[in-house]
Structure formats: C-alpha cells, structure tokens
C-alpha cells in the first residue's frame, strides 16, 4: 500500500461550518493519564522522479492521549495536512492497526468509504493514541504551501531563506547596469542587500553561467549567487539547544518537510549538569567561557554534520539555522559572558541576540549561512520558552492555558487569551536525577512509569514498572520519580506531609507493599525493584525519604509559580482549559501523577497534554515562516515577566504548596 | 608670536550683506598661470592644557593663484575658519612675509588694525599665492562645530563616528532591563544596533567600570563600549586610493582637524602602472587578484600605521576609514573580480560597494572599525571622482563649472548649476611619463615647469626649467611635458599639426632655440637640458616628436570629452565660469599651458583653478559629515553618465581636437 484512498467528496463549506480551531471529532477515547503507548510508523516515500521508495520504519513512544498526527509531527515524520491537525482538511490519511477500538469520527466518514474505514484508514489528527498502534503513512502528495509544526500549528510557508532562479540579459554598451542592479532588477519584490562576499563572486558566476543563476536570499540579504538553477536545494537546521540534550532537525524549507532529526548530549556536560554550575565555571576560570563556547559549537557542528549525512544533503546547501535555547545556553553559544545571568539581579546582555553567521557558532554549512537565536523574556525565561510559546500558540489561542516546562529551572506561562504572564521557578535537580539516590537520566534502564496495587495478592504484582528499553531496571528517571511518589501518596504509603508511613501503618493501608519498606544507612526507603530475591536494600532501585523531599520542594516551587500567576489574573484551577507539559522531561510525565502530586492544577487528566519538544518545534516554525518569527519577537512585548523572588507572598505560598493534599 | 591679533569689530550683518558664497575680497593679483610658488608654513599649536607647543615647519609647493588658506587646507594644515574660506568669518588670520605685494582687502581692514596689517597679518583665504611666501599660522582657537575641507567647503561636523559618555544606574531586582537596553535607553536619540562582538564584552565592561562607559557608535551601529570617558579619542582615516599614489589623512572627527598626512606609492605598481594592466594581470593569473588585494591592503596598512605614529594616536582609537578610489582600485581593495571593468561593455559589480570592516581591507585599527568606500558612477568615473565632486561642490554651486581629473584615464564632469554630466576619456599614458621618451614621475629631478624665450641672446637663457627638488634635471613629468609643448607651440617651434618645424624655419621663428633641434635615432627631438656642453642628444633630457604626438592624442581625447559635454548642454567655451584641474597630476598643470595646448577651453587663466587632491578632501568630508556622505550617494542619481565610445560623432570631434589651434 502506498496511495491514500480517495474518499467521499469534501467541500470548503464543511470547513467553514465547523471552524478551523476547535477539533470537531468525536470525543476522544478517555484514558487514565498514566503509562506510555508505542507507535510503530511505516512511512512510505517517493523519489524526485515519482518512484516509490522502500518504506522506513520508526518507533515512537508517547504518553497516552497524544494524537497520531502530533506524535508523528514531533518526531519528524511528515504527514500531509493543510489545516494543521484540526480535523478540517481531511488530508492526514493514515492506516491504523489494530483499529478495533479506534473510533470512527464523522470526519472519517466523510473522508473514507466504509471499506476503507474497515481497512483501518483514519484521519491521523483525530486518532488519540490510547494503546500501542501500528501506523502506515502514505507518501506526501504535491509540494505543500504550508506545513504542520508545533502543537497543531499550520504554518504557511514563507521562509526567510528563499532561492530565485533568474535568466538575465547580458550587458551591452547601451545597458551598462551594474551586475548587482541587473540581478536585483529581476527580483524587484525584494530590497536586496549584497555583502562584499557575494560581490566578490558575482561577476564571474554571472559570466560563467551565461547569466542564468540562482540568488540565495535570507531575509533581504543576498548571501550567494549560484550558477544555474539550484532552487530545489534549500535547507535549514532547527536546533533545540538544551542544557542536557541538543536536538537538530534538518528541514527542507521549500516543502516544510523534516529531512532528518537527531539528538545528542550537550558537550558542555563536563562543566556541570545545570546552567548555574556552568555559569560558575566561567566565574572561576577565565578560560571556561571559551571552552564552553567551543563545546556548544562542537555539539551543534556534530549534529549538523549528522543530519546532513542522514538526509543526504550537502552542508553547503544549508543556508540558515535557528537556535532555541535558554538564556545561558544562548549566551554561551555566542561567547557572551553569562555571569550577570547567574547572580542577582539576573540581567541579560540583550533580550534579542544579534543575527550572526552560522560559522560564528562553529557550523560548517554554507559560509554565509545565517544563525537566528530566539529572544528571551528574562534571564530564566529564555529563547527555548519563547520558541515553545510560538509552537503552542500561547499568543493566539483564546483559551485559558498553562504552559509548564519542567526541569531544574521550571518556566511557567499562563494565558487567559488576553494577557500572557510568565515566570521562572527554581525547581532544583530532582527531575534530572542528579539529586535522587537512584536517579538517572531518561535512558535505557530507567524506570519511567510505575503503577502500584496496594492490595495485590498471589501472582498479581504489587508494583508494575515501565522501563525504558524494556531492560533490567537500573534507576529512576524524573517521570518515574513523579509516578512513584504519586502512587505512594494515592495508596497512603506517603502521608500528606510527604513522610513514608510506619511499617505498622503500611501493613494496614497497603499490605502488599509493606515489605518494601527498608533502611539504607540511616534513611528510610521504599524498594521499587530487587535485582535478586535476597539483594540488600542498598543494591536495589528504591525511592528514599530524601528523594521525596527533593520532589516536594520542586513541585512546591512549580505550583507556587503557577498559583501566583493564576492569582495575578484572578483565575481558579478549574478555569484552566489546557495544561501543556513541555520539554524533554515534562512531555513524558504521567498526567495523572502530575495531578496527583499537585505539580499541575487539579484538573481532569484529559486537559493535561504532553506538548513534546516545543522549543525545537518553535525553531522549525521560525525557519519556515518569517511571520511566525516576527511573532516570536512580538512576544517580547506581549508577555509580562513576573519576578517571583521579589514577591513578599512567595514564601507563604511555597510552604502552602509543600504538602501532598488530596 | 602665537596669538592672532584682535582686530576691528566684525558683525554678522556684514556677512549677511556680502553673502556667503562669493569671495568678496579685492581682485586678486593677476598671475600669468605659469610656474610654481613655495609656501613655508610655521604652524603654532597648543597642548591639551593650553601650553604652547614648539612650532612646526612645513613647506608646500602649489601652482600660482591658489589661496594660502586652500594651500594649507589641502596639505593638512589647520587654520581657524567657520565660513569655509569665503572671506566672511574673518577667522583665518595668518601672518605673511614678505607682505609688500600682498594686497589689503576691505575684509582685512575690518579685521586688523593698521599696525597689524603693517606687520603682515591677513585673512588667509583672501591671499592668492602669486610668489614664494612665509606664512605663520596661530594656534587654533576653540573647538569648532565645523571644519573646512575640499574647495572652500564648510562642513558642519556631524561625523558618522560618535562617542557618548554615559553613567548608568546599576540593575536591581525591580529594574532588570538588559545591559543593552540600559545603555540604549541612555542614548535615546539613536536607534542603536549592537553586534555580537559588543555583546560579548558589554556586561563585563559595564561592571568593571561601575556602569560609567563610553559608547562608540558608527552610524547607528554600536561598535564598542569602552570603560570610562574616552570621548576625546575619536579618529578616522581618509584614504585617496590612487592607481599611482595613495594618500592617508588621520582626522580628529571631533574637531575636523587633520592630525597627520602621508602618502606613498601604491604597492600594486609591480602589476602595471595603470588600471588596465592590473585588470589584465587578474585575467591571466588566478593568483593575481589575491595578490593585488594584498598589495592594496599592505599600502593602506602602512599609511595607517604611519599617520597614527606621526599623530601620536593609538590605532585602536581609529574607528572608521573612508576610501576614495577609482572603480578598479576599489574592486581590487575589496577583492572583487575587476575583469568586467576592463572589457566592453565595462560593467561594475555594484555602484555602491557594501560597508565592510576595516580589518577586511587589511587595516589593524579598532577591530570593529568600519570602512566606507565611495560609490562610482561608472566603470571609468569612479569613487575618486564622486569624492572630488563632493569636495568641489559640483552639485551645489550654481555656476557653470568644468571638472577635469587629468590622468591615464581622464574623468570629466560638467555642471551648468542644474544638470550634471560626466564622462571618461582614455587619455593614455602621456601624463604618467611612461610613454614619453624622457618621461618620469613627478619626483625629484623631474622638470615640471618650462619657460622659453625664443629671442634670448647673450647671458639670457633661452629655456628656463623648474625642477622638482631643485636638482639636476633627470626627466620630464606630465606638467613639464604640457609646458614644453605649450611653449614650443607659442613660439612657433611646433606647428598647428604638432610637427617640429624644420631647422630653417626654426632659425627664422626662434633663433635662440634652433640649435636645440637634433636627432635621436630616426626621430627629431628638441633638447631641453644638456648635462654637459658636448653631450650627445641621446644623453640629454629632450622632447621627441613622438612625445608630442602622445600628448596630442591625450589632449584630443580630453578636449573631445568636454567639448561633447558642452554640446550636450548647449554651452560655449566662454560660458564656463570655472575649470577645476584635479588629481595629483591635474593640480600641478600650468593653467596657461593647459589653455595654450587646448587641454581646457580657451578661457582667461584666472578661471583655471588647481583643485588639489579633491578625492582625499571628499573622503575627509564623508568622515566629518553624514550629510555630505549622503550627498555623495545622492550624486549617483543626480549625475548623468555619457558613454563616449557609443557616440557616432566621437571620431570626428576627436580628429578636430588633434590640432594645436591658436
């Protein structure tokens, strides 16, 4: 199979009647907000000449409830769409299996015949992934004028990077226009500026190619003139420059299609796991800033080389990059002294980093390729969050929405559809695993999902673990930590103050779990996994009392942040229509556990949405649309930054948020 | 003496009555338009603390008729003035000696007492130098708001380079403005743009200097932030980048004062003496463009280092340079392929070269110093001519004026006060000395002035030679060539067709010169200088028949150029109110000889004015005033370029101009 089926007619009138924003499908299948689902994509492609390519297989693991379309989109798998995943364009046709419990919406009925529906065809944006699924994606149809990125954002393609092929008349004694004017006269819808590097080549390229050339333009800068017609090769790279992980996505900006995606650990890791330790390094050692800058450059360069290799793209055909990073990562990548970011009163050198050449941040792409860095709202609400706001449409959606990027520094944005507030909460290292006894990064062997049955008996397991890579558990990652605490609170093994109950109390409230209470050194622990039946507690994977305290402090900082923002806008928990959990960590939290421990407002789990790598999505949007990029800059004016450390009511609110209230 | 005398009162009403443009002095002493005058300047200065400095001595050699003020100004000697040398501000006080035949104008009477006049005090702009003079220049008075440059141009100081000293409030938790905003808020009359290099230093400079810093601004680019108050140190360098000679002038843009001037041969000389041979070099050898670019860079760098050393200025305090060069010199300095300039249809890459860093043209000044290159009107009416037009006010003066830059390529501009036309005439190498048997550059030993007495007898010399450096004559430079031909035409030794007359005819028309006719090889020559009484003709300095032909062709090309321009505007010779002879060669032509051979229209010699190094003056103006710089760019729109090689009537006009008509 490779061609999506032709279904019943679809008219624009339907779109108009149903509106473009609200997803009009049947109610999604409810899910309980816990666990993970695995999606196996089989992606069909077509070569330039129309010939079918061998299908590519990709496995993707997401929290339940994410739509198939979003899951694909966040992972760089392109599916046809012109409406941005709102259920109206009827283009995102996929074949689902098993399809037994995937509901058929009225949009599916309009799009597909009964036979096709029976064969598993559905609109990908209307399928909520509530269990493991196999998904077949047909080849993309015609070159789109728009691409889908971010959280259901449909971006009309108008990239800053443009290529224009022109055939010019040769100069004569009666037409002595300069080479540059001859070229710009032919591209008269733009006010092109040429730098000296283009002028150095211009006359010889024009004459060697019989005045048939392709102008390479970024914004209104003419960055190169290439012989002949090279309009087909126009690429850009979107970087999510995280403190821990850096993700690079190679994009064909002509079609909006992601060509290759890859990620790696930030090579700055040896200088410290979080931004503060890296800033400290620059304060203690004059050479550190230069070395951190080089480490950032090396990371970006390696990712760029890798996505170009994977995508079979000549790095010389990459003309622009966009970088979304927090204020410290941005400063370090640009070689800007980060010290004032690390000490009160937390001041940035500039909110909008200047445009630089990609070569200035260590990239070996086209020599005049440009690098765009996202602007920051504050020292702790950086370009990654601005990119995330762009990707989630925080400035466009009229609903009341809360955006939380969970991490060592947690950024929170609240919009009521009119005003947008942002703040930063210092959550500490709990989620990164560093301060947790058995903590580890979300890598193979990390427990990421935990379910507890307090009254299990016989063969039924009292504790069920979801482990990344399905291997022997080695430790606990952030989402596992949250699950563990949430489950133990739920069954009463942890009281409202966060204390592990006594063994006596445990036997009463959770008889199947009581024997898991143990001591490691002076500390009480709850054993999650015993490698061997007679292993010592210290050899096990466990949750310690101190771990609970770490998480308590983190969640209190975060919930104090959004509580005070809600207060600022006069809103209650229930007014929040959607909570977006963002970032490489936040996206993998169990919504149910997040609600349980009070990390997010007490809301139905269906309102808690994993948003994926929104910084990377925002970076892609900035590359695909100058309008979206302008929107990112406009956010600097639209968003009010609330400094929490300055507020007299912060401490009181914080203490109030420490407990695990029911 | 050091303080200029206080004279009679002077009121603004006088200025208003007399107007600002017309020079209202007494008729200047008539001169015959031949020879040279030597001016010996004694320049008094004052240190920062007001203490008098030891006077500096400077010798200057100019064609007769140039004013003392202009002669000083063109040679980088600053004299007080606010009116630009128009005789109205009464500030340019100098003491002349001998003063016997220097007339006293009514402006002098209003400025000085009788005793002062008797002591030699005059207004420098009203003294036409018609003989050798000693000139004493008092120290400059207060820092001016304007400077005098070019040909009587008064430039209000508004340099692109600005320094602003600011004392900023330190950041607090309730004032977290970024460092950049904090700075730009304090300089709110400009829309400053900061590049990444400034941002890299900004936070540490602010904090190390207690937020008391000097912003360094070029146009609206913030190029640096320096600790403390450095507003006193703001320098720029104006370059006249000639094919043969390159001149650098270090300017204090805060006062408009030239600090040091120096010149050297263009290090591109080994690639050929003129632009065509250098362009050819790049066509025959792939490496040549790079080497020519390096040679230009080395020349500019050496001059920059020298003027900084002479002026006692730290090169780090030079933040901008302006370069006026022809289209080929400009292209080579920027590394732009010049080939299309050298072959029909003679096309430039761009009329306005892009702004580049000074470091990109090889200069080691402030690392972010900018380089401005003058735009060109055509492949053969380059940035040097645009700068010259600016310096001579070709676009502002309402008189009908003809501007001629004499050289291998001769540029001609004609303005009737409304329209401005320009063209280029290929004069060939006659003026540079290369194609002339005894030709040489205008260096020590070159005959630059020649007077002939056809009927001299006894001890009276038949031929009087002016030799540069007052040494034994070694050859003939361009102005000497023109003098020689003009004088021989005048006395009848050359007929109207340019042939040396027969010995018989010579004995009749010029008995004292007849014995100077001789043969060198197959060629008839006229001996100008015999090193020894019995020297062979070949050992002498002589003018050959072929030399005369070379000059004939050159003058025919030039006069065809301005003749056709006059025709275009429907003007006669007599309508031309001023002829400006520009460039390092043109400025030293004898006006009388230029008229005699028909190089310029038949006009009274007083209308023929040596304009000096107008390209360099234009470059200075561009550094001192953004308004003037905008004026240079506006010339691109205002001036109509006339391509001569395209005109059907060119050949006929050329033949017509070959003869030496009376």
TrEMBL record, chains A, B:
One Pfam family it belongs to: RACo_C_ter
UniProt domain 2Fe-2S ferredoxin-type: residue ranges: 37-141
InterPro entries linked to this entry: 2Fe-2S_ferredoxin-like_sf (IPR036010), 2Fe-2S_ferredoxin-type (IPR001041), ATPase_NBD (IPR043129), Beta-grasp_dom_sf (IPR012675), Corrinoid_activation_enz (IPR052911), Raco-like_middle (IPR041414), Raco-like_middle_sf (IPR042259), RACo_C (IPR027980)
Any one GO molecular-function label of the UniProt entry: iron-sulfur cluster binding
Record protein name field: Uncharacterized 2Fe-2S/4Fe-4S cluster protein (DUF4445 family)
Taxonomic lineage from the root: Bacteria, Bacillati, Actinomycetota, Actinomycetes, Propionibacteriales
């Amino acid at each position: 199979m490779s061609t999506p089926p032709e279904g019943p007619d679809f008219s624009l009138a339907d779109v108009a009647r149903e509106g473009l924003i609200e997803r009009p499908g049947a109610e999604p299948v409810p899910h309980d907000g816990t666990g993970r689902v695995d999606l196996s994509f089989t992606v069909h492609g077509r070569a330039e000449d129309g010939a079918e390519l061998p299908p590519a297989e990709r496995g993707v693991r997401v929290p339940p409830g994410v739509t198939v379309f979003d899951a694909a989109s966040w992972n760089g798998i392109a599916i046809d769409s012109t409406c941005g995943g709102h259920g109206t364009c009827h283009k995102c046709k996929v074949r689902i299996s098993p399809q037994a419990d995937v509901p058929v919406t009225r949009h599916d009925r309009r799009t597909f015949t009964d036979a096709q529906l029976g064969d598993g065809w559905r609109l990908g944006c209307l399928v909520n992934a509530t269990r493991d699924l196999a998904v077949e994606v047909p080849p993309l149809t015609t070159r789109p004028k728009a691409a889908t990125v971010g959280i259901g954002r449909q971006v009309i393609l108008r990239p800053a990077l443009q290529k224009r092929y022109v055939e010019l008349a040769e100069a004569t004694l009666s037409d002595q226009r300069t080479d540059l004017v001859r070229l710009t006269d032919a591209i008269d819808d733009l006010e092109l500026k040429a730098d000296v590097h283009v002028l150095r080549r211009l006359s010889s390229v024009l004459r060697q190619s019989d005045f048939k050339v392709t102008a390479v333009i970024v914004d209104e800068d003419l960055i190169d003139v290439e012989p002949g017609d090279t309009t087909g090769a126009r690429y850009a790279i979107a970087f999510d420059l995280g403190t821990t992980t850096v993700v690079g996505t190679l994009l064909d900006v002509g079609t909006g299609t992601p060509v290759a995606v890859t990620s790696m650990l930030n090579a700055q890791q040896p200088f410290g796991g979080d931004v503060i330790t890296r800033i400290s390094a620059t304060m203690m050692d004059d050479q550190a800033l230069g070395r951190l800058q080089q480490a950032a450059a090396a990371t970006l360069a390696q990712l760029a080389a890798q996505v170009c290799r994977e995508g079979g793209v000549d790095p010389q055909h990459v003309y622009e990059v966009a970088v979304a990073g927090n204020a410290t990562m941005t400063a370090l990548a640009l070689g800007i002294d980060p010290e004032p970011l690390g000490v009160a009163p937390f001041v940035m050198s500039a909110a909008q980093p200047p445009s630089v050449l990609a070569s200035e941040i260590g990239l070996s792409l086209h020599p005049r390729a440009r690098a765009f860095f996202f602007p920051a709202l504050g020292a702790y609400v950086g370009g990654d969050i601005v990119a995330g706001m762009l990707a989630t449409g925080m400035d466009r959606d009229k609903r009341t929405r809360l955006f939380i990027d969970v991490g060592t520094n947690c950024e929170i944005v609240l919009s009521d559809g009119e005003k947008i507030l942002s703040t930063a909460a210092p959550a500490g290292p709990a989620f990164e695993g560093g301060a947790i006894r058995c903590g580890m990064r979300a890598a193979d062997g990390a427990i990421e999902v935990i379910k507890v049955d307090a009254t299990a008996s016989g063969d039924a397991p009292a504790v069920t673990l979801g482990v990344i890579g399905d291997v022997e558990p080695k430790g606990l990652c952030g989402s596992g930590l949250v699950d563990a605490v949430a489950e133990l609170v739920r069954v009463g093994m942890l009281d409202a103050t966060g204390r592990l109950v006594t063994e006596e109390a445990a036997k009463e409230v959770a008889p199947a779990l009581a024997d898991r209470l143990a001591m490691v050194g002076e500390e009480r622990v709850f054993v999650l996994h015993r490698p061997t039946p007679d292993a010592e507690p210290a050899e096990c994977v466990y949750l310690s009392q101190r771990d609970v305290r770490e998480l308590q402090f983190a969640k209190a900082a975060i919930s104090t942040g959004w509580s005070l923002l809600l207060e600022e806008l006069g809103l209650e928990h229930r007014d929040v229509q959607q909570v977006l959990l963002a970032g490489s960590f936040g996206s993998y939290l169990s919504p149910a556990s997040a609600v349980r421990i009070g990390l997010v407002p007490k809301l139905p789990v269906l309102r808690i949405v994993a948003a994926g790598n929104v910084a990377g999505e925002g970076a892609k949007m900035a590359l695909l649309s100058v309008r979206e990029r302008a929107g990112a800059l406009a956010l600097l004016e639209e968003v009010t930054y609330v400094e929490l450390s300055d507020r007299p009511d912060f401490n009181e609110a914080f203490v109030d948020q420490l407990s695990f209230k029911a």
